[in-house]
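pasting Acetolactate synthase small subunit for the record, 187 residues
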Amino acid sequence: MSPLKIKKGATSHSAYNLRSTFGDEIERHTLAVIVENEPGVLARVIGLFSGRGYNIESLTVAETDHTGHLSRITVVTSGTPQVITQIKAQLGRIVTVHEVHDLTVEGPSVERELALFKVAGTGEHRIEAIRLADIFRANVVDSTLESFIFEITGTPEKIDAFADLMRPLGLQEVARTGVAALSRGPH
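structre below
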């Protein structure tokens, strides 16, 4: 998978402009970080990003090996190639970090996100919301006479597209898990 290029005129959402003076393009990268599952590890990883003004677009973390006490942190971030290299190097220096993988450059990967959408509406808006949910393969997980809660999984782009379509139909609230990602293949 090639890094997602962000248009040169796009603005950064971090505290600092990540574009270097050489005009490098800002790229979106998904990093998988295997860490010790102990108190303070997530704070150290997040501190690395906030202390240097790097933006985190998505963050998920969960224990993946109960016996080995390891957790997997999946971080989606953006920056110039130099910034991404620096982030990976600095993550690798944290004592409790076992591995850092850049899924964006290591080969094909699969990214998924779970989201819940509360949509309020009656009449035609209600019917249209159900029709669109069916097209997007979203499940109704709660229903009242005046609202639905839909559950949808897919790429972040699919989640964004569903949100865009639900806004005019009465979108009230959204909860997203953040990206979970794995590299494809046996390795």
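DSSP finds four helices and ten strands in the chain.
The beta strands are 4-6, 26-36, 56-65, 70-79, 97-102, 109-120, 139-143, 147-154, 171-176, 180-183.
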